[in-house]
Amino acid sequence: MDDRTPAPLPPPALRALAGGMPAAELADRLGVTGRTLHRRCVATLGYGPAVARRVLRFRTAAALLYDGVPPAAVAARTGYADQPHLSREVRALAGVSPGALPVAARPGS
User: Fold this and answer.
1) Helices then strands, each counted (H, E), the chain
2) Spatial separation of the C-alpha atoms in residues 39 and 67, rounded to whole Å
3) C-alpha pair distances (Å), 23 with each of 12, 20, 74
4) What is the rounded distance in angstroms from the CA atom of residue 27 to the CA atom of residue 24?
């Protein structure tokens, strides 16, 4: 890695984003500017912290849905405002409803 390549985000920072921590708060905790956080996030994940937070939360929710946890419980456990919010995010990111997500994730579906 040369001097121009941003350092990757450490796993605790990724967990903080997945938990919904705002980018400004994470930047403060890491002792970097918001712009530096953005560069490091892009270097690590390919997109900025806002999208990373959205995708990481979705991945957690999708795993719970796949395990059969009811959508209302998934929404509460993963920080969505409510079940309709979870439903909108699942449709936006996966193109299916929360109920169809486990079916769509199966091989051959």
Assistant:
1) 7, 0
2) 34
3) 14, 9, 23
4) 5
Burial group, residue 27, by CB count within 10 angstroms (0-12, 13-18, 19+): buried
**Interval 32-72: pLDDT, tens:** 999 999 999 999 999 999 999 999 999 999 999 999 999 99
Integer-rounded Cα radius of gyration of the chain: 16
Q: What is the dihedral of CA 15, 17, 18, 21, to 10 degrees?
A: 110
CA–CA gap between residue 39 and residue 42 (Å, rounded): 5
pTM: 0.79
How many Å apart are CA 60 and CA 54, to the nearest integer? Answer: 10
Above 80 in pLDDT, residue 3?
no
